Fold:
Amino acid sequence: MSARQRFVQCASPRGLHRMAYLEWGDPENERVLICVHGLTRCARDFDNLAAAMSERYRVVCPDVAGRGDSDWLGDPMLYQLPQYVCDLVTLIARLDVESVHWVGTSMGGLIGMALAAQAATPVRRIVINDAGPVISKVSLERIASYVGMAPNLPDMAAAERLVRATSATFGPHTDAEWRFLTEVVVRKNADGTLRMHYDPKLADPFRAQMPEKDLELWPLWDAIRGPTLVLRGAQSDLLSSETCEQMKQRGPKAQVVEIAGVGHAPTLMHDDQIRIVRDFLLG
Structure:
């Protein structure tokens, strides 16, 4: 089953922008699963998960503003959680459903946390993939070292070398999977060279607000009430095992599953990872 691409118009203090999204499964299905990618990734990351879940859900995978086929924002300082949450609320309104289930990887998990913490939230069940209410300063510094820094690349082989280097913490993948993970996040320039698919200025607020210590978002976590699953890459430098222990005791008292051999973050491309998500959402 192939995905349908659609667009929804969203608002920011600097005007309107279009957000692209892919939709899988029966468009009339009121059971909706929203899957939101990480900081520099895109909707296509969820192709395997969406295909596996589309018999039971209408699966919706957006390109968050500034990425993929979505518009770039006029003010780069708006590339932050409040704008992303507003855009996803607009998307849910477009889908015309009262509630959704959510899978969010890294940044997508933080957006889901922020939305699930709101009063009268539409998020009923959430999977947070290698993110949480404490984000280590080490991981923020690592991400800041490469976001928005990629030069134009001469060909797909060079692009793949870059993606393999910056995404090595995704864990073992086949050559075909690395090529897929590369192809979905590059775009061709007029001169035939390749560039990363996102607005390099999305790094501006990221670097401007680098904290002096770990970033803590416990008030959001403590406000979540629905069933929650946390996935952690066993070698993650963003989500610590100590934070996961607290996440099991506070707020929604999450289930936690650790993925061996992976850092930040599990890609949810492989059957064993998909099975964990599927069993939780449909349980």
Summary: The two ends are 24 Å apart (CA to CA).
